[in-house]
């Protein structure tokens, strides 16, 4: 027997005769529209009023890869710039497990006790590969995440380290214009990203651990030299002794370094982020530093130097991106790489051929 459902006219929704057929689409369901982009003026006005939604949307624009968004983002930044700069920018670094998120949570709450606002940003080079950021994630800072005066933003994920760092640098401007007078920039203390962070902060805090054996060996000399303060975390319980030992070792190691350009002698302290011990002392050190560099003019000098650095960094990064994003350059590079690896062409002539093509194409095609 032929089954009713095999009939072309069959519709599962109408089999029950006598029952009114409900509308196919829920009338209460509103078509989700993409929120229209606010104008530059609206965004700037919102940011200056401290509107977090506007700030987040502007940061999203800064992070966007779309050229149209980039243009808008630059206009917003330009207008926010006169309202920026009035903050303490603090870089915080340490290897995974050093206790950065635990510490930032308590340092942040400590800072906010005296009022003001705090933005926690991050530069995470690994996010380039994983397309997700492990730093600056709200879930890692439980107390700050629900604090009304804290703004937490994970690392921008797309692009080169230079590109990611530039976006964080621009986000600092937006946050400051929105009234955030404390900025933390977090990074993992294992690579190049510290240099990038160092170039955008006033104070660079290195979180270290004791009891890992040869304390000073695993640390890259460069990172230690950048630090304005070294703090040894987890100085609690049985770990107090080893932490103090590490403190003494770091102190003597620091004496071997040349004096810093600021004239500030980096300090070494122990604390416990988890048990909230020694937090005030860490912050008192940071206060002393700001007093010192504001007094001797280094604060202003460093900020101007950083502004110059970021001009060149931005130029370098955008030139590089323009070159490598050219499809023909990309194709040629693939081909040249094989030739160089096979010893069929020297590195220099291969590079010259690609650059020749690029510069010629710039001259002949102004649209590139
Ligand atoms: P991050 O990877 O640097 O962000 O480190 P986390 O803040 O996630 O901390 C790593 C681990 O160390 C966690 O299990 C924390 O609970 C623990 N931890 C953090 N701070 C302290 C501390 O002051 N004392 C002790 N004993 N453990 C801590």
SSE layout and pairing:
Layout: H1 40-48, H2 52-63, H3 67-80, E1 88-94, H4 100-113, E2 118-123, H5 127-130, H6 142-145, E3 150-152, H7 161-177, E4 182-188, H8 193-198, E5 203-209, H9 221-226, E6 229-233, H10 240-255, E7 267-270, H11 279-296, H12 298-324, H13 327-341, H14 347-364
Parallel strand pairs: 1-4, 1-5, 2-3, 2-4, 5-6, 6-7
The structure holds guanosine-5'-diphosphate (GDP).
Quick recap of the structure?
By secondary structure, this protein is an alpha/beta fold.
Tell me about this structure:
- The structure is a single chain.
- With 368 residues, this protein is of the alpha/beta class.
- 49% of the residues lie in helices and 11% in strands.
- It has 14 helices and 7 strands.
- The protein has helices at residues 40-48, 52-63, 67-80, 100-113, 127-130, 142-145, 161-177, 193-198, 221-226, 240-255, 279-296, 298-324, 327-341, 347-364; strands at 88-94, 118-123, 150-152, 182-188, 203-209, 229-233, 267-270.
- It has a 7-stranded parallel β-sheet with strand order 3-2-4-1-5-6-7, sandwiched between helices.
- Helix 10 (240-255) links the parallel strand 6 and strand 7 (267-270).
- Helix 2 (52-63) packs across helix 3 (67-80).
- Bound molecules: guanosine-5'-diphosphate (GDP).
- Guanosine-5'-diphosphate is lined by residues 94, 96-102, 233-234, 236, 272-275.
